[in-house]
Design a protein that fits this description.
The complex is a heterodimer of chains A (206) and B (234).
Chain A (H helix, E strand, L loop, with lengths): L4 E10 L2 E11 L5 E5 L5 H8 L7 E6 L8 E4 L10 H13 L5 H12 L15 H13 L5 E5 L7 H14 L4 E6 L11 E6 L2 E2 L1
Parallel strand pairs in A: 3-7, 3-8, 5-6, 6-7
Antiparallel strand pairs in A: 1-2, 1-4, 8-9
Chain B lengths: L1 H16 L2 H34 L5 H12 L3 H12 L14 H37 L4 H11 L1 H16 L3 H7 L9 H11 L2 H33 L1
The chains are: A alpha/beta (206), B mainly alpha (234).
Chain lengths: 206, 234
């Protein structure tokens, strides 16, 4: 099986702070990849490098042949929303992602919001939602794009048990056809046999 | 004091009489300033957004140049445009000197650096806020420009009003290129200069009061918008 992503000697330095130091990594498993570690370990930086949201100061990020031309999606730790309704935010993401607007987006948006039981939020301003609601909408905005690789930064943070379980089950189903990367503090409940776990400490993989 | 009261009464009477000369001056002023602001906004808003989201070799030099243009004295701009539009100038064949078009050109050149600078600063803020999201959804350059302008629309409207206030109060450049011709190129500010020099203080004061009232109107709109933004951000 060809590699999905290879990181070759990656370092990231911002304002003289070394966030990542000589990271070498080969991801070639379809299992969910978990990036864990303490605060400031470099988890989010690594995820942003993997998702090509941030360019490294040094080193090469290489997507495998099967993924070179494929699109990815990213859910940020602090969700970023345009100053519009939830529906318009999802529509904007779809339009940018696919390069054009389509009338079917409205049905797609209604369908996925209903699936997560938050259709009532469709016309609310995304920036006025609670932190938990923002995380759900941010996750939905990623999955609705139907990407080949999905990067999720703390997807369960601020969610109540019911939604944490719902999102967790959704991610598990999604992972059967999409490569999933997750950043999380919590690693004890994940078993090495079921997940590909990357443990980080002080900007390096341990 | 009684002289001033008399002057003020006469000025208010001129305003309330709404004579055709007075109306013409106001209409020329609004025509020149509004046209200049619309043209300038149509050029500067997309241009400032393009400068903001792109990194290119001369970017910093271009920003320094725009900031330098902010300090250009209006009379110098007026003089340069006068030379360019006069019969022996580069654009003399178009016969634009002493026309409203020449005044609009002068105002566009005057307010564009102000608008460019204000818009770029605002778009820089929005871009730093949305860059990662826009990159994550593969937004094209065009989609980024449209998204940022739409998101910043209220702030941009405030900048347009500030530029309009600046354009309305301008006198040096439009006096040189417009020639202050009655009923054709006379504006409130050039009218004040002329009437004061003639000793017609009541006419000058009536134009001054009108200009102040228009500025007051613009500032009330600015205040309402800023308050709405503050309430919205709370």
């Amino acid at each position: 099986m060809s590699n999905i992503i290879t990181l070759d000697d990656i370092s990231l330095k911002i304002n003289n702070n070394i966030l990542l130091n000589n990271i070498n990594l080969v991801v070639n498993t379809k299992k969910i990849t978990l990036i864990t570690g303490h605060n400031g370990a470099g988890k989010t930086s690594l995820l942003k490098i993997l998702g090509k949201i941030v360019s490294p100061t040094r080193g090469i990020v290489d997507y495998g042949n099967d993924y070179k031309l494929k699109k990815t999606a990213f859910s940020f730790q602090e969700p970023i929303f345009l100053n519009r309704s939830v529906g318009s935010n999802l529509e904007h993401a779809l339009t940018c992602y696919n390069g054009r607007y389509s009338h079917r987006y409205k049905y797609l948006i209604n369908e996925i919001l209903s699936e997560f039981n938050i259709i009532k939020l469709k016309h609310k301003l995304a920036n006025n939602l609670s932190t938990g609601e923002k995380k759900i909408v941010s996750y939905i905005r990623c999955t609705i794009l139907n990407p080949h690789i999905i990067f999720l930064d703390e997807p369960y943070a601020h969610l109540d048990d019911r939604y944490a379980k719902l999102i967790s089950e959704h991610i598990f189903t999604l992972s059967k056809k999409t490569k999933v990367f997750i950043v999380t503090h919590e690693s004890s409940s994940y078993r090495d046999e079921d997940f590909h776990i990357i443990r980080m400490n002080k900007g390096s993989i341990v | 004091m009684s002289d001033f009261s008399q002057l003020l009464t006469q000025s208010i009477k001129i305003i309330l009489d709404l004579q055709s000369n007075y109306i013409d001056i106001i209409l020329v002023s609004l025509n020149v300033s509004l046209s200049a602001v619309i043209i300038s906004a149509a050029i500067c808003i997309p241009l400032a957004t393009i400068i903001s989201i792109n990194n290119f070799y001369f970017k910093n030099f271009l920003i320094i140049l725009i900031n330098t243009l902010l300090a250009l004295p209006p009379v110098v701009i007026g003089l340069i445009i006068y030379i360019l539009l006069s019969r022996f100038g580069l654009f003399g064949k178009y016969d634009l000197l002493y026309t409203v078009s020449a005044m609009i050109i002068a105002q566009v050149i005057l307010i564009s650096p102000i608008l460019l600078s204000l818009v770029k600063e605002t778009i820089d803020d929005y871009y730093s806020q949305y860059k990662e999201y826009l990159d994550s959804v593969y937004a094209s350059k065009f989609q980024k420009i449209i998204t940022l302008i739409w998101e910043a629309k209220v702030n941009l409207f405030v900048h347009i009003l500030i530029s309009l206030g600046r354009a309305l109060s301008e006198v040096g450049a439009i006096l040189i290129v417009g020639g202050n011709i009655e009923n054709i190129t006379r504006t409130m500010t050039t009218g004040i200069v002329l009437e004061t020099s003639k000793g017609e203080l009541s006419i000058a004061l009536s134009l001054g009061i009108t200009l102040l009232l228009i500025s007051l109107f613009i500032n009330i709109i600015l205040y309402i918008i800023k308050r709405k933004i503050m309430v919205h951000n709370e």
